[in-house]
TrEMBL record, chain A:
Belongs to the bacterial solute-binding protein 1 family. It holds the Pfam family SBP_bac_8. One of its GO terms (cellular component) is ATP-binding cassette (ABC) transporter complex, substrate-binding subunit-containing. This is Putative sugar ABC transporter, substrate binding protein. It comes from Streptomyces sparsogenes DSM 40356. The keyword Signal applies. Transmembrane segments: none annotated.
Automatic annotation (TrEMBL), chain B:
This is Binding-protein-dependent transport systems inner membrane component. One of its GO terms (cellular component) is plasma membrane. Its main location: membrane. It is a multi-pass membrane protein. Residues 98-312 form the ABC transmembrane type-1 domain. Keywords: Cell membrane, Membrane, Transmembrane, Transmembrane helix, Transport. It comes from the Bacteria. Belongs to the binding-protein-dependent transport system permease family. Residues 1-24 are annotated as: Disordered. One of its GO terms (biological process) is transmembrane transport.
Length: 417, 322
């Protein structure tokens, strides 16, 4: 390396200027995009979602473009992976660069609404009518509706028709039948049943139908009802009809196991249907999640993404965004989107029409009507309870604690501050 | 990082030559020299302050605040004193995560060092393809950790992984080892993966240390009748001490903060069995969005790392003074 004999003042000045520019960049001086003044005519708005997979991404892009055209704006869609959506939204919230239209997973809405970064939809004249109760409660924070979802989903029991037929097993409807069926379907190299018992919110989401259908409640986890539900999962693993690896499986992994013929039944959602349909040799069926006693209705958690209008200085932009949001949620677009994504329209009348047209969806349409939003009881305290629940699942399935002990610890964690 | 001192020395030497005309000139030149010195230090100092000092300070402040998702939008984060620390330190998980962190670090360091030293000694000998093999040994270092972590996860899968398939094939185990699903085995598995990741670093540094030991010492020892064990004990080990210090202390600091491998291979599970202070701090901040508590826990980790770094610096100082 050569060095100048005498430090040139100009060089140092250049270096220092560089440093200052860096500081300015790091502290975020200078205006971001979307800071246009309110008087400008709005020609385009931005939208952020987590629909990164194809064909989902393109289908949403087309829908947003069509709704944008109706509102007279171009919609610029950005999709980020699901796990990075909330961190990105938080960064954007602090730098005041939130998009004009923001999609959120429904259990996250209350958390974000609490920050004050979202606007209530009634100020744009949007009156949600005919929505299923569950999804409306997920989109509501302190009595005001902040987000609306065109479609909702939930989980159900998927089964391999050929495997059930060969083993002479009927589709299980109760927990007892589920245990026997899973045992009968287990062979070397194949398990009877698969769930996602991962140490993430996804694991909690899959356990909720068992907890809720048995009368368990996320507000009080240390109850016999909750322990019985967890005992069911423990029994399935102990009897060898469910792999211990469920501890590490995501819903995508569970799906892969099912497609590979390594499990005869699984808990999963309707968004898997397009992938299941690509395999012509796989004959699958779908049924409601088994309930503790015959004749009960399963209570499942409500899935789906709500669209929101974040705060922004430009009233005109927000108005346009609200127009697009209303368009996404009109009955005909709801039906189109639900058909594309194998989900259930969130207006009950539209859902009924959809179930008539697509019979495989009738199981989900019925479940969704009774489905409960994860944040309906605990609101912004839900993430804490959800963490307690998946930790309890893991402790019980590894045999570290009995279900009752594990859930007692979960309750302590959920209510501790 | 470049050390500015050789540049300065070179510059001042020439400055002195120019300014030797008179006493006054010399004084002016000396103050100019001072300024020049500071200006050379300024970019590095500014860089350190901006990219190391500021985040650490922010993290320290954050650990005394109730910093939640709301803070991001409103900017208000009320000070809560030591509440974050008391909650983090008194939580049910804290003692187990500390124990896991200690086991993980100790296990990884012992394994990495022993195998790294063995490989370094092995490659010191000359044999055909030795150079090629030695460079292949660096492979774990070149792969992104997420890639190698995912591959290990597949290999260790209890049902379908190649490791259990091999064990079953060799009739060493009928049911297979629950590598990722048994609470005690899972910790062993992440330690195993981390050892594999750390071997190249240990081998590379120890190998370069071995190369610096003059060959004539071994020849002399051999003439005196010393066997391989005696020459290792009396020549290799004492002369390798500086490299051993570097490898161990940096190893401890690197291992304490390991996050990616654990997140990819086990995600901290099953049942928190592989949760270390680092993964717990990550979960608090970025999954539960309790940034204040996450900051408090990561400061605990920072203090532990800093202590071992100070031990290292002291050791280096002592070695230099000898």
């Amino acid at each position: 390396m050569t060095s100048p004999a005498r430090p040139s003042v100009r060089r140092i000045a250049a270096l220092l200027t560089g440093t200052i520019t860096l500081v300015a960049a790091a502290t975020g001086c200078g205006g971001g995009p979307g800071a246009g003044s309110a008087t400008d005519k709005v020609t385009s708005i931005t939208a952020l979602d987590y629909y990164t997979d194809e064909p989902e991404h393109t289908q949403w892009d087309e829908m947003l473009t069509a709704c944008g055209r109706a509102a007279g704006v171009k919609v610029e869609q950005t999709s980020v992976p699901a796990a990075s959506l909330i961190p990105k939204v938080l960064r954007q919230a602090s730098s005041r660069t939130l998009p004009d239209l923001l999609m959120l997973d429904n259990p996250d809405l209350q958390q974000i609404a609490r920050t004050g970064a979202l606007t209530p939809l009634d100020q744009y004249g949007i009156q949600p009518r005919g929505y299923a109760k569950g999804i409306l409660s997920a989109g509501t924070y302190r009595g005001k509706v902040y987000g609306l979802a065109p479609y909702v989903s939930t989980v159900a029991l998927f089964y391999n028709k050929d495997m059930l037929a060969r083993a002479g097993v009927a589709v299980p409807r109760t927990w007892g039948e589920l245990k026997t069926a899973a045992t009968k379907l287990t062979r070397p190299g194949r398990y009877g049943m698969a769930v996602d018992a991962n140490a993430t919110f996804e694991g909690t989401w899959q356990f909720l139908p068992f907890l809720w259908s048995n009368g368990g409640d996320e507000r009080r986890l240390d109850t016999p009802q909750a322990a019985q539900a967890l005992q069911l999962w423990v029994d399935l693993v102990k009897s060898g009809s469910m792999s211990r690896s469920v501890l590490n499986w995501t819903q995508a992994d569970v799906h892969d196991q099912f497609v590979a013929g390594r499990t005869a039944m699984m808990i999963n959602g309707p968004w898997r249907i397009p992938a299941l349909n690509t395999d012509k040799d796989l004959h699958w069926g779908v049924a409601p999640i088994p309930v503790p006693r015959a004749g009960q209705t399963p209570v499942t958690p409500l899935g789906g993404e709500v669209w929101t209008v974040p705060q922004s200085p430009s009233e005109a932009r927000r108005a346009k965004a609200a127009q697009v949001l209303a368009c996404l949620n009109n009955s005909s677009n709801m039906l189109t989107l639900a058909r594309q994504h194998f989900t259930v329209p969130s207006r009950t009348t539209v859902a009924a029409r959809h179930a008539e047209q697509v019979p495989t969806m009738s199981v989900f349409a019925r479940s969704v009507a009774a489905a409960r939003a994860r944040t309906s009881q605990l609101g912004v305290r839900w993430p804490k309870a959800a963490t307690g629940i998946y930790t309890a699942i893991q402790s019980a399935l590894t045999g570290e604690q009995t279900p009752a002990e594990a859930l007692k610890a979960a309750q302590r964690f959920a209510t501790g501050d | 990082m470049t050390d500015p001192s050789p540049v300065l020395r070179k510059g001042t030497g020439q400055d002195d030559g120019v300014a030797s005309a008179g006493h006054r000139g010399a004084a002016r030149s000396r103050s100019g020299e001072r300024l020049a010195q500071w200006m050379f230090i300024a970019p590095a100092a500014a860089y350190l302050l901006l990219f190391f000092g500021y985040p650490i300070l922010r993290n320290a402040v954050m650990s005394f605040q109730e910093y939640t998702t709301t803070t991001f939008y409103t900017g208000s984060a009320p000070f809560v004193g030591l509440r974050n620390y008391s909650e983090v330190l008194s939580s049910d998980l804290f003692s187990t995560t500390v124990a896991t962190t200690v086991l993980f670090t100790a296990g990884s360091i012992v394994g990495q060092f022993a195998l790294g030293l063995a490989f370094a000694l092995f490659f010191q000998r000359r044999f055909p393809l030795g150079g090629l093999l030695r460079s292949l040994l660096l492979l774990p270092w070149l792969l992104p950790l997420v890639v190698s972590g995912t591959t290990w996860k597949w290999m260790l899968d209890p049902d379908t992984g190649v490791v259990n398939a091999a064990l079953r094939g060799l009739h060493l185990s009928s049911s297979g080892v629950p590598w990722l699903t048994g609470p005690s085995q899972a910790l062993g598995s992440v330690i195993l993966v981390n050892i594999w990741v750390g071997i190249p670093f240990n081998t590379a540094i120890l190998y370069s240390g071995l190369r610096n030991i003059p060959a004539h010492l071994y020849e002399a020892a051999e003439l005196d009748g010393a066997g391989p064990v005696a020459s290792f004990r009396h020549i290799t080990w004492p002369l390798l001490r500086p490299q051993v210090g570097v490898v161990l202390v940096l190893g401890v600091v690197y291992t304490l903060k390991v996050l990616d491998i654990i997140l990819v291979v086990t995600g901290g599970g099953p049942a928190n069995a592989t949760d270390t202070i680092a993964t717990q701090a990550y979960a608090l901040s970025f999954q539960q969005f309790e940034f204040g508590r996450g900051a408090a826990l990561s400061n605990v980790l920072l203090v532990i790392s800093l202590t071992s770094a100070l031990v290292y610096l002291r050791a280096v100082q002592r070695a230099r003074n000898v």
